[in-house]
Amino acid sequence: MSHSNLLEKELDELYKEADRGRTEGERAGNVRRLVAYILKVIAAGGSLVVATGLFSDWHQQLGIAVLVAIFFDTVSSNHKKLLATVEAGYAFRALKSKVKREFNREASTLYTRKNKGEDVDDQIDILMKEAHVALSEGIELIQRKKEASDIDALKALSLDQERAGMSPN
User: Fold this and answer.
1) Which of 26, 46, 81, 117 is deepest in the core (most CB within 10 A)?
2) Number of structural domains, the chain?
């Protein structure tokens, strides 16, 4: 397999990885968004019903439902993970679009020149290497930010502040 073919294959794999990241971000974002809305409706709606005095026979059950919704949202770090997941999905989409747009803009003139018989293979290789580097570094950056967000969400679950009598951020 020639160097050029190997580079094309790797670029294709990186584009696919960016697509998978975007798809994962969209899919997980949709699920987490739905869960977030359900929990917010339970918490806000239940609190409103209790505060207005409606259905007084159900206040204890509504209070428990509100506490469970808030507890689940906090323990699952749903909101923080929702934001990180959606941000990553958007970042993967933007990265792929940017790299493709820049590559296609430069490559179109090179391929036009190549069709006229000019030897531009070295320039095309350089362009492919630049796209490869941009995708690789972009994917790595997005993944590092996602990992940092996961670590922050895990830190938020710590009870150290509660034990010390301090309130979390």
Assistant:
1) 46
2) 1
In a domain, 80, yes or no: yes
We report the CATH number of the domain holding residue 103 as 1.20.1270
Look at residue 168 and tell me if it is in a domain: no
pTM: 0.74
Domain residues for the domain of 126 are: 3-163
* pLDDT, tens digit, 9 for 90 and up, residues 38-70: 999 999 999 999 999 999 999 999 999 999 998
